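G., the chain you wanted modeled:
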Amino acid sequence: MEGYIIYYRGKVVGGIYDDRFLVKPVKSAVKMMPEVGLELPYEGAKEMLLVDNVENKEFLRNLLEALYEELPAPKKKK
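Predicted structure as tokens:
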């Protein structure tokens, strides 16, 4: 796997894989991007949503906030 994991306020929201910004397909993200299909970040991974509106800072901020609210808290390390 080659890519970069993207964290937002301590939660994993997605990553950059082969010059694509992909996010977890939670309900809020699907609602914000209904026309976007699921893509594989790499072989053997779970499908994710392609964010193609990366130039729109307001959209990205709203997307990350929505993802943050819906994703579970990170697991605490022992």
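Strands lie at 4-8, 11-17, 20-23, 38-39, 48-51.

Shout if anything looks off.
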